[in-house]
Design goal:
Strands 2, 4, 5, 8, 9, 16 and 17 form a seven-stranded mixed beta sheet that branches. A six-stranded parallel beta sheet has the order 12-11-10-13-14-15, sandwiched between helices. Strand 10, helix 5 and strand 11 form a beta-alpha-beta unit. It contains eleven helices and 17 strands. 27% of the residues lie in helices and 23% in strands. The chain binds zinc ion (2 copies). One zinc ion (ZN) binds next to loops.
């Protein structure tokens, strides 16, 4: 595997779990943009990668000292196994942990070449080795393909609304970009009780998905001025919270001006390394007040958020099934990258 080359299926070696580690049998794993970014060399040059990181499965074995999960537990994997000791953890803000854990041992190819697991997970595999803190036990009756998506993109979107944006009952929320993360932000805004949820995208098909998840108003951004359209939809004022799920200078600037005075902008779309903050008069930043925030992984704390969101899903209050556009085999990942790139799916989920 080299930069930008199609993914391959290989035999791998997964070591027995060492202290603090767990081996998890994977049941389902979503295909995320980050996997594609790894494949294309956009994240690190440490090839070869073991891709896949939005997964659910069953704990197969645990290493010494592991107490948070037991063999047989149904878990959703996460990439925020908090350390408990860094500056953020010490002040009780575990969701910002600056020093998260991954497994210490390496999984390898059969010839001993060490693998770099995507986001420290690597779940396009029958089984994977992680730090035990990366396993969050949830309701075992939940559908793996749906709840595994909480492991990354869907959690990022839900959390952008609920955690970072702090959306509450009666607020107006606009979400720019309605792919997997943006669609989840819409679902999060609905769950939090927003009374007006405006979905913005270039594609009508995605706006239809957004309506299904709770959008009350849709704007096709190819048809005019997005800022004006959001203001029009909110009595001329702008939305209380605007979530940029695209992450380019144009959409961030739209979010900045499409929010009401004292409103909040949440950036959850991952920007390209070359992207710059658009030029905005500093007086506008001051004069409009409010907050400009970034949302990493939806500022989630897996131990707090995953079981709660799975319970809401099981109760029919959060439609995680809507994010599973198709279930595919492990040999279909490359095809899923193409569909994702073209915007044909919210998520393709590999079933193992
Ligand atoms: Zn920490
Ligand atoms: Zn992801």
């Amino acid at each position: 595997m080299a930069k930008g080359e199609p993914v391959q299926m290989m035999e791998i070696h997964v070591p027995d779990p060492g202290p603090g580690e767990a081996v998890v049998t994977i049941q389902a794993c979503g295909v995320c943009h980050t996997d594609l970014a790894y494949r294309d060399g956009g994240i690190t040059d440490e090839f070869p990668f073991l891709l896949g990181h939005e997964a659910a499965g069953v704990v197969e074995s645990i290493g010494e000292g592991v107490t948070n999960v037991a063999v047989g537990d149904f878990v959703v994997l996460n990439w925020r196994a908090v350390c408990g000791e860094c500056r953020a953890c010490q002040r009780g803000e575990l969701q910002y942990c600056f020093d998260t854990f991954n497994a210490t041992q390496k999984m390898t190819l059969e010839d001993g070449t060490p693998l770099t697991p995507a986001l420290g997970i690597g779940a396009f595999a029958d089984r994977t080795l992680v730090h035990s803190g990366q396993c969050t036990k949830v309701d075992p009756d939940a559908r793996p393909a749906a709840v595994g998506l909480l492991g990354c993109g869907v959690m990022a979107g839900l959390g952008a609304a609920i955690n970072t944006g702090g959306v509450t009952r009666g607020q107006s929320v606009a979400v720019i970009g309605c792919g997997g993360v943006g669609a989840a932000a819409i679902a999060g805004a609905a769950l939090a009780g927003a009374s007006s949820i405006i979905a913005v995208d270039l594609e009508d098909r995605k706006l239809e998905w957004a309506k299904g998840l709770g959008a009350t108003y849709t704007i096709n951004s190819s048809e005019g001025d997005v800022v004006e359209a959001i203001r029009e939809a909110t009595g001329g004022f702008g939305a209380d919270v605007v979530i940029d799920a695209v992450g380019i200078p144009l959409t961030w600037k739209q979010a900045f001006y499409a929010r009401d005075l004292a409103g909040t902008v949440v950036l959850v779309g991952v920007p390209h390394p070359d992207a710059k903050v658009p030029e905005i008069p500093l007086l506008d930043v001051f004069g409009r007040g409010g907050a400009l925030k970034s949302s990493w992984y939806g500022d989630c704390l897996p131990s707090r958020d995953f079981p709660m969101l799975v319970d809401l899903y099981q109760q029919g209050r959060l439609d995680l099934d809507a994010f599973v556009t198709e279930e595919i085999g492990l040999d279909d990942v490359e095809g899923a990258f193409m569909k994702m790139h073209k915007g044909d799916v919210l998520r393709s989920v590999v079933i193992l």
